Amino acid sequence: MGAPAMVLVPLVVEWLKSVGVSVRFAGVASVLIAGGLAALSEAVHERPGLTPVARVALAAILVGMAGSGTYSQVHALRRTQPDQE
Q1: Does residue 37 register a pLDDT over 70?
Q2: Is pLDDT above 80 for 10?
Q3: Residue 33: pLDDT band by 50, 70, 90 thresholds?
Q4: Do residues 9 and 30 make contact, with C-beta atoms less than 8 angstroms apart?
Q5: Nearest to 27 by CA among 41, 16, 39, 18
Q6: What secondary structure, in 3-state letters, does the chain show?
Q7: Cα–Cα dist 35/58, whole Å
Q8: d(C-alpha 4, C-alpha 1), whole Å
Q9: Given its phi and psi angles, is residue 83 left (phi above 0), alpha (psi -120 to 50 degrees) or beta?
């Protein structure tokens, strides 16, 4: 698991908070997400055929959240820039 879990868990928790999940559930969400990632990691070891599926799923989550975060950041920067004349 290692580094991917260290990146994915906070990303998914922050995304959940941004879509309206209460902050008080952040700890529970972190444990559930980490558990899901651990289960996926173990499943890949037991069934090597799942490796491509797991890679695609993890890449989709990472790239999707990175794209969403980039869009949000650009949108926020555009709102805070002073009018240029």
Answers
A1: yes
A2: yes
A3: confident
A4: yes
A5: 16
A6: CHHHHHHHHHHHHHHHHHCCCCHHHHHHHHHHHHHHHHHHHHHHHHCHHHHHHHHHHHHHHHHHHHHHHHHHHHHHHHHHCCCCC
A7: 14
A8: 6
A9: beta
What distance separates the 2 farthest-apart alpha carbons in the chain? 62
- Inform me whether the pLDDT recorded for 28 exceeds 60: yes
On whether the CB atoms of residues 11 and 65 are closer than 8 A, the answer is yes
Q: Which amino acid is at 77?
A: L
Retrieve residue 71's tokens: 């869009």
Residues in Cβ contact with 34 at an 8 Å cutoff, skipping those fewer than 6 apart: 1, 5, 9
Say if residues 9 and 37 touch (Cβ distance below 8 Å).
Answer: yes
